Amino acid sequence: MELEAQGLVCERQKGVAVSYRGISVGSFRADLVIEDRILVELKAVGQVTSGMESQLFNYLKLSHLPVGYLLNFNAPSLFFKRLVNTKRHAP
Q: Tens of pLDDT along 12-52?
């Protein structure tokens, strides 16, 4: 993968534990996490919906990561959206 060739640590399908007030309530899998700082969600859909953007924002809040990208490869040109987790708290 190109990111790894550039010396970045990338984790594919990274499992992220979700807890509420210290109690485990489930987990989700992030498509890609880069350097434990950037969460990337990959799509191949006709159109990105607001629900997909909301999903990424919720993943950012749950993972406590600062930045996320939503990439859609099924568009005439690559679509991407950057979201910033402004309410980030340590786990």
A: 999 999 988 889 999 999 999 999 999 999 999 999 999 99
Place of tokens 């990338």: 10
What's the mean pLDDT when you consider all of the chain?
Answer: 91
Instruction: Give CA–CA dist 43/19, Å, rounded.
Output: 26
Distance of CA 66 to the CA centre of its chain: 10
CA distance 88 to 58: 11
CATH code for the domain in which residue 74 is found? 3.90.320.10
35 neighbors 8 (Cβ within 8 angstroms): yes
Pairing verdict, β 79-84 and 38-43: unpaired
Whether 17 is covered by a domain: the verdict is yes
